[in-house]
Automatic annotation (TrEMBL):
The lineage of its organism: Bacteria, Bacillati, Actinomycetota, Actinomycetes, Micrococcales. Keywords: Oxidoreductase. The keyword tRNA-binding does not apply. This is NAD(P)-dependent oxidoreductase. InterPro entries: D-isomer_2-hydroxyacid_DH (IPR050223), D-isomer_2_OHA_DH_cat_dom (IPR006139), D-isomer_DH_CS1 (IPR029752), D-isomer_DH_NAD-bd (IPR006140), NAD(P)-bd_dom_sf (IPR036291). Belongs to the D-isomer specific 2-hydroxyacid dehydrogenase family. Residues 119-294 form the D-isomer specific 2-hydroxyacid dehydrogenase NAD-binding domain. Transmembrane segments: none annotated. It comes from Luethyella okanaganae.
């Protein structure tokens, strides 16, 4: 009889009542497969400590980091399935050296995260936060005249990082009729053109846009890609939204620009330091709408990300390579993958 394929879920998936905190993440498909068992890791820790993954064939990872040390003793580990698309918390080089492919779930995040960006964009443009406060705090409704919003139709939208989420933001906003400019040095201009966006330089984007949406990957090159100098190029009424990673924006510079009224507003799903420090100046800005890295979290995101992870785990458990989407294909150069076939196009 074949060995059981053992799957770990990082402990941060577990809610206080012992169930998966995200609701239905598509585990039924994994549970229906003979010969697979899964369990939560015993400790919520980041990074996972040496030995934490020993005895497991696959791991589904939420927020806990996987470092080189985390792989100590993980001799059976054949796949790290990341619930989401950001893999800055996974030591890719260490996984590659160990022959462990890391998979991500772009299909799960694309729609929900693009809608999250649109939600923040429209809420900030229409000053929803300030208008809610007028009613809730029983203020004089004449105050509403101070909060006329920014109508987006006919205006220019700038998207920094025109990938999976960025292009979906553009597609969702197409019906309202904005001109779209994008900055993404790694994108084929033909792809941008097909999507209906004009590729421009970052300075041009900051200066031309009425609304800027940040959906770039966080890399050493994109750290503080929106800095004080580039914020200074923005129009006075312009707004900026970040749903990617906090360090893409120099947050102190943004707080200063907002507090001094030099730009119109901001919507931030992500912060440079999470959770926010009590004395973080961004918390004092009235024109910023904030979220604890969760604007995009919906039932659809949970199911989409979970199903993507389950698909990877099933493919490996069935004796094939994971197909969807491996961010370190060099892991397959490891001898353990010699002769292992690709997964069929679809897994039922
Ligand atoms: N807030 C959340 O809950 C949440 C959820 C999912 C994803 N994210 C973040 O969103 C990011 C984007 O996700 P995605 O699925 O669109 O990824 P993606 O890889 O498809 O897109 C990222 C884009 O950034 C571009 N890029 C790389 N370097 C750049 C540079 N120097 N300047 C401009 N663009 C550059 C890439 O070419 C790519 O097109 C992820 O990296 C992740 O960190 C956040």
């Amino acid at each position: 009889m074949a060995d059981t394929f053992r799957v770990a879920l990082t402990r941060d998936f577990r809610s206080d009542d012992g169930t998966i905190g995200w609701g239905d993440i598509g585990m039924a498909q994994l549970e229906a497969e003979p010969g697979i068992e899964w369990e939560f890791l015993p400790v919520d820790e980041t990074p996972l400590s040496p030995g934490a993954l020993a005895g497991f064939d696959g791991v589904m990872v939420l927020g806990n980091a996987v470092s080189a040390e985390s792989l100590v003793g993980a001799d059976r580990l054949k796949v790290v399935a990341r619930f989401g698309v950001g893999y800055d918390t996974i030591d890719l080089d260490a996984c590659t050296a160990a022959g462990v492919p890391v998979t991500i779930t772009p299909d799960g995040v694309r729609g929900p995260m693009a809608l999250a960006a649109v939600t923040l964009l429209l809420s900030v443009a229409h000053n929803v936060r300030q208008k809610d406060r007028i009613v809730r705090e029983r203020r004089d409704w004449s105050e509403r005249y101070r909060y006329n919003g920014l109508g987006l139709p006919g205006k220019t939208l700038g998207i920094i990082g025109f990938g999976n989420i960025g292009r979906e933001v553009q597609r969702l906003l197409a019906p309202i009729g904005m001109e779209v400019v994008a900055y993404d040095p790694y994108l084929d201009p033909a792809v941008a053109g097909q999507a209906g966006a004009r590729l421009v330089g970052i300075e041009e984007l900051m200066a031309e846009s009425d609304a800027v949406v940040v959906t770039a990957a966080l890399t050493p090159e994109t750290h503080h890609i929106v800095n004080a100098e580039r914020l200074a190029l923005m129009k006075e009424h312009a707004i900026i939204v970040n749903v990617a990673r906090g360090p893409l924006i120099d947050q102190n510079a943004l707080a200063e620009a907002l507090l001094k009224g030099r730009i119109g507003g901001a919507g931030l799903d992500v912060l440079e330091e999470e959770p926010a420090r009590d004395d973080d100046p961004i918390l004092d800005a009235d024109t910023v709408l904030l979220s604890p890295h969760a604007t995009g979290w919906t039932d659809l995101l949970a199911y989409g990300n979970g199903s993507g992870c389950v698909r990877s785990l099933l493919e490996v458990a069935r004796g094939t390579r994971p197909s969807h989407v491996v961010v370190n294909p060099a892991a397959f150069d490891h001898e353990r993958w010699t002769g292992v076939p690709d997964a069929p196009k679809t897994v039922s």
